[in-house]
Fold these 4 entries.
Entry 1:
Amino acid sequence: MSDFAPSVSRLIDELKRLPGIGQKTAQRLAFFLLRSDRDQALGLADAIREAKDKIRECSVCNNITDTDPCQFCTSATRSRKTICVVEEPPNILAVEKTRQFSGLYHILGGALSPLQGIGPEQLKIKSLIERLKGGTVEEIIIATNPTAEGEATAVYLSKLIKPLGVRVTRIAMGIPVGSDLEYADEVTMMKAMEGRRDL
Amino acid sequence: MSDFAPSVSRLIDELKRLPGIGQKTAQRLAFFLLRSDRDQALGLADAIREAKDKIRECSVCNNITDTDPCQFCTSATRSRKTICVVEEPPNILAVEKTRQFSGLYHILGGALSPLQGIGPEQLKIKSLIERLKGGTVEEIIIATNPTAEGEATAVYLSKLIKPLGVRVTRIAMGIPVGSDLEYADEVTMMKAMEGRRDL
């Protein structure tokens, strides 16, 4: 005999599939949903369904969106001169939070990783090159992750795009603001030294 | 302009309502759901809906259940002589995990807490007394939480039930197995001394 009613077990199993959610957390969430009022619990169920039904990829920048093209690509207030290239849609948020960037985005859908069989064809690179053809874009900011894959992707893109006469830049790597040099790993420290600026 | 498409924002907001889920985790879960295949994401939505539709309270023990009476109350293999009294349905799991208890359960729906306006009428105490009337029940094990409220509830129940000629016991409080005396708080240590047994 299972300790839970079948529909409770099923809910716990479904919750356990989520990243970072183990048995205990899944149980806690399931009992929370069972205790909460019907509208609230079904609100979550409906939100999942609605998101899966409505969300598609923007045909311009590959961001996830309700409308095609997405809110960034159709915005009248954003500059068309700069495109920030990121690996995945959530990365946009990190850039947006700075409130310093008002250009457009391009989502690659990952980074080059020969070991995982991800080559240039698996990424949305062709459509990025297409976007440069109008001559409006003056700068590509490459904001892929500071990992081996992200770096390789940045180098690959820069070799591809520079010959087209577009400026290619890479976000700075270095010591995070508010941290302590004591805890910096040697690679980050090396990048911080390399990227030093005149005061 | 929001950083996310409206249906993504809604999904994040709904996930944030869950206990222990903040903005960052909600975003991570939302993007996971958006990336995962349709069946898997909708599996969670359907499980929530199914649980909310099917789950009711057992009319005997107040456990959450698909069927009324619940799997414990209808089980042919469980002894009807002992009832373990707990505060909430998830507490049953802690008892079941021991594999030592094969009696029935009774869920109070909380513990006495005058400060929060929870008196005996707000708990499922009347139905517990009803269950004792047949004369089958020989022992009530009170497994409310080892808190002030749980203790008060245990004392209240014991005063109510003992006169009916039913044995009333309370789960032991003491040092958890595998821990270190060094880290035991004084109240737990006091309970451990009080509850000492002959070797």
Entry 2:
Amino acid sequence: MATITKVSPLAPAAFPDLPVIDGVTFATMAAGVKYQGRTDVMLALLAPGTTVAGVFTKSSTRAAPVLDCQAKLGGPSDGAAAILVNSGNANAFTGKGGVAAVEAITAAVAQTCGVEQERVFTSSTGVIGEPLPAERITAVLDRLHRDQNPDQIEAAAQAIMTTDTFPKGAMAQVEIDGKTVSIAGIAKGSGMIAPDMATMLVYIFTDAVASQNALQAMVTRHADRTFNSITVDSDTSTSDTLLVAATGASGVSIDGNAAFEVALHGVMQDLAHQVVKDGEGATKFVEINVTGATTDADAKTHAMAIANSPLIKTAIAGEDPNWGRVVMAVGKSGAPADRDLLSIRFGDIEVATKGFVSPGYAEADAAAHMKGTDIRIGVDLGMGTGASTVWTCDLTHGYIEINADYRS
Amino acid sequence: MATITKVSPLAPAAFPDLPVIDGVTFATMAAGVKYQGRTDVMLALLAPGTTVAGVFTKSSTRAAPVLDCQAKLGGPSDGAAAILVNSGNANAFTGKGGVAAVEAITAAVAQTCGVEQERVFTSSTGVIGEPLPAERITAVLDRLHRDQNPDQIEAAAQAIMTTDTFPKGAMAQVEIDGKTVSIAGIAKGSGMIAPDMATMLVYIFTDAVASQNALQAMVTRHADRTFNSITVDSDTSTSDTLLVAATGASGVSIDGNAAFEVALHGVMQDLAHQVVKDGEGATKFVEINVTGATTDADAKTHAMAIANSPLIKTAIAGEDPNWGRVVMAVGKSGAPADRDLLSIRFGDIEVATKGFVSPGYAEADAAAHMKGTDIRIGVDLGMGTGASTVWTCDLTHGYIEINADYRS
């Protein structure tokens, strides 16, 4: 693994102050799965009755723990539950041994913590294709069980990092019927980020009361406009996992509650943006806003073509308002576009209007916008009402440095 | 434009010795379209009766000269014809002014050279979105007409370069019925290279006798497995143009002739490989060979997902046989794959067999292959008989350097 010496320039000033979620406890350990001198296993225990919803990578080569989680979602939710995550090894492309490792770990967690094995969810993140040394994880389970603490979510965020340069957390609280419902989430991810799913690993906890069906529907809906609307390098992980757990400890039901849904969306978007801001080598955070497309899906196709274009991402790194490359990306996306209806903005500067450079456009104005760290590119197709917003980062020497010797 | 100081390390030792094609003459000029101190306009005149076939970008924002060429293909072919190409400005996203520039240039060429305007084909390559100063081109037409010479194809290859670090040429000769038929071609392109079309600009000339229909069918067939099977950065130009002109001067008809088709394929593949070898920042030439897919189209989808993956391209730059990233790319491609049937090779080294690391695989062996400049990645899906071969290059600091300040 390349030595990561610098925290992303786009990182938040500090890890946020996250509320304790009643019904959730955490512990972390340095199990030596691969890394030395840092924590690499996180165990979260969830109170009896916690409902768990999830969204996963659509990769056809997805890892054993992902397949195991997918099989378990929607099962009985009366007992306690557990989430165990290790970093350093993705347990992906590891054949029958990988399946056996998941079986061994989930059985051991079930036995140690008194949780049904059907309620033990695991994720693994790190190198693909190397056998996961499950015994290093099971060897620390007693200690992980003993150390459980409701106040350790930041430590959990740190234990699941791989090439991340900062731990990622987000929170929201909403008042419903005079009571406070809290949401706290953590995420990891900085490379191999693209839909679907965008983020490597995300765990969100709430003390809301939610049926599994309603929670799953809400999570799926918002994953599409948050974690599935970001890209760092167009590459899709074999391990991407988002789990949302509702312990019910607040006593407040949020099925169909709009305020809760807005709050959850906010937490998911915040974590999604943090993943982009930790994009490998990123120096700019980029929002791509496409409007006027024939459909929302077409708008997203255009937006992702722009967000994934190496020529656009390098132009942003070079602070060059190179709108010709935006035209190129729209043209290649495959979704409908009419060159002579197309308008393009950098920040608030309209650079091209209906297929031609805007009257009075001065490149110095757009260039000034490009010097910031928050870049906005707007494209209006002029054809319909379809719209989409996606987020990405620039493509810099840092990306090459990190990825040309990840395993060395 | 960034200063290109170094020729690609993958460049051929010298421009090849191309045969004169009877019925084709060339001239070049420094018209100052954008660049200073170099030639930037090329005019080729084609003998009466020359048939012209073409393949073009599928971009929905394609440039005015491309639309003009597409409209003219398949028209009457009894008179003389002309191909005029400028570098420095793509005349793309230039609105009605762009169309007018094409009209002005083709009319002037027709008048100066005594060619029907319907037989004048133009291409423009360079920056997008800036009005093309057509008058700088028409101002040098008299001289371009006067200087026509059959032996100037290398100068033509130089005049059409933009970020290219070397001019690209290829040739073949075949004996048919005791007579020699010659093919000579030139190409330019190093960035914004992806299907469809892969190559920016390609012009191939032959003295064969060919009907337009037969020539077009042959060119389309082979474009798919040559220029549409290469990628540098997944970005698709608004200007990509391939024109093949058959003057008939040899008196040998090649309609349905297999030997000619093989020779033409060879010239097209050679030029396609040279474009990849001049990929911006390239230090490795990479062949991706996918077999065992459900269909040829699925094989190509997998091959292109591998060839376009930034994580794989940076691993190749780092000489890292990171086959886990190949698994990832196959998984994300969207085409059918079964993790447990997948086998992967680097060079002749089988690194993964049926979903798991190969018995006896030693990373040092694969690492030795990665140190070369010709890298071969083989993937067998184990599902069917679909196959595809595509070519790409690695992703290096050089790509970032060239593209982060192209316009500065």
Entry 3:
Amino acid sequence: MIDRRNHHLFQPLLYQVATAGLNPSNIARPIRGILAKQSNARVLLAEVVKVDPDARQVSLDDGAELPYDYLVLATGASHAYFGHDEWEAHAPGLKTIEDALEVRRRVLLAFERAERAADPDDSAGDLTFVVVGGGPTGVETAGAIAEIAFKTFTRQFRAIDPNQAKVILLEGADRILGTYPESLSLKAARQLRDLGVDLRLGVTVTNVDADGVETSTGAIRAGTVIWAAGNRASPLAAMTGGQTDRAGRVIVAADLSVSGHPDVFAIGDVAHATVDGHDVPGVAQGAIQGGAHVAKAIRADLAGAPRPTFRYRNKGELATIGRSSAVGTIGPFRLSGWIAWMAWWSIHIVFLIDFRSKLSVLLNWAWNYLTFQRSARLITGPWRPRS
Amino acid sequence: MIDRRNHHLFQPLLYQVATAGLNPSNIARPIRGILAKQSNARVLLAEVVKVDPDARQVSLDDGAELPYDYLVLATGASHAYFGHDEWEAHAPGLKTIEDALEVRRRVLLAFERAERAADPDDSAGDLTFVVVGGGPTGVETAGAIAEIAFKTFTRQFRAIDPNQAKVILLEGADRILGTYPESLSLKAARQLRDLGVDLRLGVTVTNVDADGVETSTGAIRAGTVIWAAGNRASPLAAMTGGQTDRAGRVIVAADLSVSGHPDVFAIGDVAHATVDGHDVPGVAQGAIQGGAHVAKAIRADLAGAPRPTFRYRNKGELATIGRSSAVGTIGPFRLSGWIAWMAWWSIHIVFLIDFRSKLSVLLNWAWNYLTFQRSARLITGPWRPRS
């Protein structure tokens, strides 16, 4: 197991680290600890910089080469800016713990800057938060920022009124949560608006800079911009010898192997898999099911049996909007409101990797829910309050 | 309340963040939240860069000037390198959350580097940890690193044996914990050595660089060096108009005010106070008692009454060495071993600032104690495994 991080990260809850609700260690566990009891597994903290499917080896950042019998590529995706990498400095995305801490820092600092500003007019932009992209991450992040501004921060400032904050969610399509049934998109939009989020549909971003964003319907002055709009697969996908799609993902066969290289598998965000004419979505359950399938395929090889075909079973999808508020599907059922929210947190707890994570996340949530506060409201990092 | 951090930090437990036992948010709470209900208190996130005791105002980093009727300076100290600031890059100290995360990163990365090294001889230095300074922070840090190496990491590596790690604690004097009774210093030394720490007394450091440390008794090749040896008071101490001592602390009168400026008080690490011929130590209880005294002095002024004289009551001191192991005094009693360890954690829990911190620290400790694991074993920060 080679990873350039020492920890497994439960990405579905990363937005909660970014919005001060959870600690990094609640949703990230050391890989070495997870695999400690599996004595035939070795864990290496290293970055793979090259895959050579013909020589059947990978190269590490320090030049070392590791041969393999089978390669399972699960290197995921990072956020992408449609060719405008210069936007990243002004609009961080949410893929790593460091990303989340930077977003947390910016969101919390914005209120502190506004409280400090001598002239309230100077702080108008500080209290405007723009989230770009109306998928689950964008919806959940916008909802959480609205809760911080309108609930957590009540009575905590003297010069500003946090209720004056503007939380704007921009989505290019005509509805949010595009992969969900349309009725749920409408319900989610209403729940977001009830929470105070200014949801703008059919709006595309044309520029991002230090002053805010420019969009197809005008400029928005904003102190904080968060990017939840595009993904690009890990560059290793292109080195597997397989074809890649527009998002840089390698196209895999029915057994999740790369065309021409049956000893190379790709799963999760880095792969483009198609089952019964439907694309497997780049979400956790696709990766989890993919991992289990690859193990079966390798065992079949070793037993001399034919490999099974990957079957993706969509168990449903859920996105939370805020306190007691969520939408989603579970099997044939469409849920919204309180019942969806109960399902959302129960399912996320179940999929956290160990008992300790489950317990600590539950306790943090209970605390946040009961007190309206946030567990991890720390601004850390270099001292630069004006940036 | 002006602070360049948004959080109050419970410094006595910072070494536990550095050694992966606690999360930053367990021991750091937002100042704004702590003072939310005190409606006559305003919290500003800002750095004070100048104190002008004659004009009775302070200047902030952005040039703003704030006038005051009373100034209470409690800006603490940072680590100092005896005039060798260039050592800091190779031997971080432990004063802020960022310091602690950097130390955690270095300690955990050292084992990962050793596991990766192709040639075991290359990794000899990686698994050597040097802690400079045998005060409470140095003792507690060395003990915690020994526990990680010799207990937490059992069975988690394949190429290296974490039991081969060397944890070396250097102290220039002839005993550790110099402010404690000598019998307790001896007991602490024995407990540290039982834990596997290589304690070297009477050894001074003459140089620190990327290869390790040079000392009065020879060079030590070490991948990780941690500095717990010297403090220097905040530079604001020198701007109060009072005299400063060798550590840069401002010398205060019997009422904790600065000579010639009865409207300027200094408390905690930034002040040098003397009570009945004894210096008030730069520990938490000195700062806490100082703060309460200053409040009384200001109330006395407002009532037209004479200010009380500061009385420091030393309630005792405790340092933990490891699992079920500590030394210290409480009033007239000298404690060591299990009973001191029980007292140590109970007292630290009592002084944590709110119920949430108390609960989360207790739960983390219980978990770590029962499983021999560490709650927050994350390597975060920029990707640079070879540094």
Entry 4:
Amino acid sequence: MRAEIVAVGTELLLGQIADTNARWMSEELAGAGIDVTNHQAVGDNLERIVEALRLAASRADVVLVCGGLGPTEDDITRDAIAAFAGVPLVFHAELETMLREKFRRWSAIGAMPNSNLRQASVPEGADWIVPDRGTAPGLALRINGTRLYAVPGVPDEMREMIGGTILPELHALAGGDTIVSRILRIAGMGESAVAERLADLFSSSTNPTIAYLASMGEVKVRVTAKARSRADAEALAEPMVAEVRARLGDVVFTAEDETLEEAVLRLLGSNGRTLACAESLTGGGVGARLTAVSGASASFVGSAVVYTAEAKGRVLGVPEDVLAGGTVTEACALAMATGARDLYGVDIALALTGAAGPEPHDGAAPGTVWVAIADASGFTHARGFVSRGERDRVRRWAEQAGLDLVRRHLEGVRLPGTSLPE
Amino acid sequence: MRAEIVAVGTELLLGQIADTNARWMSEELAGAGIDVTNHQAVGDNLERIVEALRLAASRADVVLVCGGLGPTEDDITRDAIAAFAGVPLVFHAELETMLREKFRRWSAIGAMPNSNLRQASVPEGADWIVPDRGTAPGLALRINGTRLYAVPGVPDEMREMIGGTILPELHALAGGDTIVSRILRIAGMGESAVAERLADLFSSSTNPTIAYLASMGEVKVRVTAKARSRADAEALAEPMVAEVRARLGDVVFTAEDETLEEAVLRLLGSNGRTLACAESLTGGGVGARLTAVSGASASFVGSAVVYTAEAKGRVLGVPEDVLAGGTVTEACALAMATGARDLYGVDIALALTGAAGPEPHDGAAPGTVWVAIADASGFTHARGFVSRGERDRVRRWAEQAGLDLVRRHLEGVRLPGTSLPE
């Protein structure tokens, strides 16, 4: 089964946004065993959209159109699909009812603008996909043996329809081999070091295969197996997952589909422990990541963001002489951790301080980071390093190092204790 | 002059990377007054690359091919261009000398692999662009009146050639129209309401044109003007920018190239005021966004992330009876704001509380949000609303509403004061 993605939106051609939707859809389709052979992007121009659809339908079994289903006049994907199919747009009262019902529920937004009524029309003969998050219905139709789907360009609305409706449909149609991917996630080891330990597995394996993917502060090893059934594919993947784990050791923080923050929350939950943070450098980023996970409040209590030296003293009680010695120091990180532990009354506290750059900060070179933990037993541990790269990279590496320190502590990895300065 | 971008690389079709090169090139071309009408992406497949080139050359004056110029066997853009042009590849000894010289300079890399010799061949009749950073020469040729350029896919190698050689050439050829885009950013009004107020401008304008772009919690209105000089284009755009501003009023938070958090920090700086936050729902997200901006510490002091009811009392002194009335309430938001103001000793404090979902929280339906500000003069104001959508969308809308409240207060927009409950 060959698929092609057609992105619609002048903002893509003006370079105002990158087409991250095409990336996501391609990854999902590849994971479902469907080959994506072409991407196209066109502007909000009826003729060019029709031209792109004609080309895509001439060479692909499935065409996914993304964008241009909104309520404004430059949203013309509906019209273009109707023109391509040679059918009129048909107004559906039940879609109007659905739209009005949504606006009633979102009463804070006010009455439904008339422009939203455009979203109640679909090309004659097309099915629609009812939106959960947004207002734009997705579209599904067949034209001369090609399946054509249209989804909104708003990323979470697009993902909802691709993941919830379209992929299951296509996967059932494709009928064949099932692909299972297992991802091992690694914190605290670089891509080339990971690759070196797995070099022979990488070069000798065909099913399952191994691939690497480095993103900010994390390396992923993907083990992909293909078989007639999901169970067979999983059974093929499992020994390779175990082998990779054994070779890499405790830098692998998960082999499940979870983020580092989810792993930390899972360990906190299973250990019945609570966590608070003290954040300088990261400005609240660790708290934001933890609380992005539903149910975080069972273990995560809060975070004292203390961005100035004065706030570190005032809110966390970091002593004057520690502050005088510099805020990007082991002593300051440790004092922040014990301060947050006591302020929030938690079992474990994590502190993060550093110089994000581009300028040096309080005597520390850009990229300098200190992370520290303190627990209710009095145990403390700190770790310092210098991260390369720009401001957001330094912050991201600090978050990863801090969360990974909590993860290791909860998993019982032996960390050398440190003592607070007098 | 119409341009088209053809990206080559199977990694794009597998979704391993987003095509940020096409975004960058499009932005640069638009800035030089060249219309980009289509993007295509194809894999490392000779036939499909030739097909994409043929299509692009049939409808564009300029075709920019990106990627596939590297030294490995799957780098076949050179071959595809030669096949499309119907000419052989010709080996150039001076390119070999250039390559060997580079490897000599980078002695740490070791001797030049033989595979790099592929990069010394170019389609017969083509010019080449000597690379500064990398090893891959760019290519330039004319085929039936279409100008075709090929550049490497490594971003900084691509940028060097586009910016240094290709754009100056095209700009000279285009004879000069310059495109200027102005972006107005809007918080607190939905896309369709914005579009309704501007409907006649949208439909009647050809130069400048108006377009909308909605992203999470924000609507952008883009005004694009085209003229012989940058100054003329700016002069054309300006009255439309002023008209849009006048119609939309104070929901426009900027007409400059800045984010909402940058606008808030700019206003804090120019007013000489300091800010702290109290975050429940957003978990540190507001602090993280503010501190992502370099220099934030001049105005932003910190944020008390208080994710549990107990932490709200313990850290911010929210009274027992307020907590008993529910943490997602006007009273709790106001008490959090005054608590943060006093804890951090700042001029203005912003508090955010809510039910992110998917479950109701403390008696409040998913999506319920309260934001409040308190300033050093004793003024307080709160605003409640229900956001639609998933957890991260609710959090994002809360951040936007909270930051926008601070922005309005600093801009002197009259907000009705509220009093704390006894």
